[in-house]
Recover the amino acids of this structure.
């Protein structure tokens, strides 16, 4: 006896819109790819127009917007012009700040902190009335600053601050959900630019020491980001994705 056709699972993000702020490379671009594969229409932003066009072609983006996410006026224009509602927003813009205190440009350090905290607060405010109830804001932080050390003052402060900020935003923005992903080392173009000719040595070290026996890639982080969009029970929390990097000696 034939049982008849088996119902196919619908893609979990089918018909939804995912905006990726900082989506032209690395974690942002890979998240856009995976979200698109799960049925979402994606909107990409980035600073470099040429790289953004290539990324948009790669993922079949609905639209793009080239601007610096730390520019408050440009960020406001983006949200004002974006379609309503947006279902999910991933924020990857910005990078880490490393400098020993004796060599630190305090003005640059202050600007870095203000830009990162300010970006999170501005995105949160713009999300009200734009991101649907039950949708998500997913911020990208890191785990590297949890280990004190020379040159780690600023990144350590930001690593500690973001989980507290996200938890409070989850209360204020509810029923919009707010979560934070904290990666360790991720093999991205940003990592390559920071490490230069030491990149392959770092990869080899991680392959030899991480419990997972390999280097974490942007796809690993993107898979978690998409899960946070899909799983409607998750809000106000920080999720590590570091391959066990925090479990082994530095």
């Amino acid at each position: 006896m034939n049982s008849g056709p088996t119902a196919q699972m619908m893609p979990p993000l089918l018909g939804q819109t995912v905006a990726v702020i900082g989506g032209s490379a690395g974690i942002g671009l890979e998240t856009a790819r995976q979200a698109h594969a799960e049925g979402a229409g994606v909107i990409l932003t980035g600073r470099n127009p040429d790289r953004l066009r290539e990324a948009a072609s790669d993922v079949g983006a609905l639209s793009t917007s080239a601007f610096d996410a730390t520019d408050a006026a440009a960020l406001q224009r983006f949200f004002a012009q974006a379609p309503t509602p947006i279902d999910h927003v991933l924020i990857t813009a910005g990078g880490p700040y490393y400098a020993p205190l004796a060599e630190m440009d305090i003005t640059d350090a202050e600007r870095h902190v203000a830009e990162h905290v300010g970006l999170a607060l501005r995105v949160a405010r713009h999300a009200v009335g734009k991101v649907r109830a039950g949708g998500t804001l997913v911020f990208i932080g890191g785990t590297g600053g949890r280990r004190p050390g020379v040159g780690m003052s600023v990144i350590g402060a930001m690593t500690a601050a973001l989980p507290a900020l996200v938890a409070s935003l989850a209360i204020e923005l509810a029923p919009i959900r707010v979560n934070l992903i904290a990666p360790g080392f991720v093999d991205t173009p940003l990592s390559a630019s920071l490490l230069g000719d030491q990149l392959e040595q770092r990869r080899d070290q991680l392959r030899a020491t991480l419990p997972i026996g390999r280097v974490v890639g942007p796809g690993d982080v993107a898979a978690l980001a998409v899960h946070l969009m899909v799983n409607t029970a998750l809000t106000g929390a920080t999720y590590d994705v570091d391959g066990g990097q925090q479990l082994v000696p530095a």
